Amino acid sequence: MIEEIKKFFKGDAEDSEEMLVKYSHDASLFDVRPKLILFPKDKEDVKNLVKWVGENKNKYEGLSITAWCAGTDMSGGAIGESIILDFSRYMNKLIGWRQFPKNSSGLTLPGVPGGTHTVQNSSEISAITVEPGMFYRDFEKITLGKGLILPCFTASKSINAMGGMYGNNSAGERTLKYGKMEDYILSAKVVFADGVERTVEPFSVSEISEKEEIYKKVYNLIKRNEKEITEAKPKVHKNSAGYYIWNVLHDNVFDLNKLLVGSQGTLGITTEITFKLVPEPKHTRLLVVFLRDINLLPTLVNKILKYNPQSLESYDDKTFLLVIKYLKDFAKLLGLKHFFKALH
């Protein structure tokens, strides 16, 4: 298999015992041994590989691709029994910056009149396009240089990568105020099962008849099953299960990224992502509250939420003792440099 792939694949291909063992696990408890590790040089490698896999499924039993960016997923989404496609070695670059105008309705997304999130004191929305293998720690240095941030970063932001954040619909300490990853995707370039890379971005439902068959099929699927889909939508603030088909149609807008975000690369493999950014607050304040009775927490939380806090964290004495107990292990896992950054 590896010799066949090398004929069209410009990047690296490795199947040594050391590499197979390394990629047999991510941050989850699972241990799944792959057959081959590939490091694509560019999007052409990705397109050619996806097309080749589609054409050779009958020849090689269980042939599949699992996308890998940093391997920090805790659900086993980055590991598989066939081909691991690791973007972190080469496809980790900044593509560029873009600006989108904002009208009275809020943000103006590509091809869509108006948006759903409002950013104050700005006539334009800043956006950044990167490859999926870029680590968030590098991404944040770039955005903070312009006073901007992607606020749905996770607690593991010092070690995770942008493609994984897209694949997991990442959320973190600021999600309470700013929302999840799905709220910050302006567009993405995605390679689908046919090996074709498509630019996926929101568009008006009135344009559906002009779009490719893939969009029409998803649209018709949703409309035929609208009642069932609406009733199946989980009534939760943060849904980590993926496949958010109920979010694809909203406010007369069709946005396939709402389905792709959180799907762990199973519906398509992303080669570029354009993120919406928001201004980083110049000043923040921290309030620490000590409770003698944890049963007071629900009432306290409801009162605090009225003030639209950026984040809200709570833990009991047993959780605190666990943190103290495993501080040394966390430091060893992250390395001292990233450990102290995480504490900061």
From TrEMBL:
What GO molecular function annotations does the UniProt record carry, in alphabetical order?
Answer: D-lactate dehydrogenase (cytochrome) activity; D-lactate dehydrogenase (NAD+) activity; FAD binding
One GO BP annotation of this record? lactate catabolic process
- Keywords of the record: FAD, Flavoprotein
What SUPFAM superfamilies has UniProt attached to this entry?
A: FAD-binding/transporter-associated domain-like (SSF56176), FAD-linked oxidases, C-terminal domain (SSF55103)
Out of the domains of life, which is the source? Answer: Bacteria
Family designation: Belongs to the FAD-binding oxidoreductase/transferase type 4 family.
Q: What is this protein called?
A: FAD-binding PCMH-type domain-containing protein
| Record-annotated FAD-binding PCMH-type domain positions | 30-280
Q: Which PROSITE patterns match?
A: FAD_PCMH
